[in-house]
Write a structure and sequence with these properties.
- It contains one helix and five strands, in the order βαββββ.
- With about 80 residues, it is α+β, with helices and mostly antiparallel strands.
Length: about 80
């Protein structure tokens, strides 16, 4: 699997970043329910969320890492 990585700089406290990530996952579950299967999202630690979803017959898994000055989203692409 090939990783796709996006880094987003921020100046927010980690708790606020986690809150915004949770809100984004909730919105994605609602807005994309008809095209994406269940979106699984679980905080493994205070700094790392494990994510997974399926669309177009393909499974996508990844992580969201809350770091001091950036948010790193990594999705592993099939193939």
């Amino acid at each position: 699997m090939k990783p796709l990585e996006v880094r987003i700089p921020h100046r927010l406290p980690p708790s606020e970043v986690r809150r915004r990530v949770d809100d984004a996952v909730t919105r994605a579950r609602t807005q994309h329910a008809d095209t994406v299967g269940a979106i699984e999202a679980t905080w493994e630690t205070d700094e790392r969320m494990r994510i997974g979803f399926a669309t177009l017959g393909m499974q996508f898994d990844g992580t969201v890492d809350v770091m001091q000055e950036e948010l790193r989203v990594t999705v592993f692409l099939p193939g």
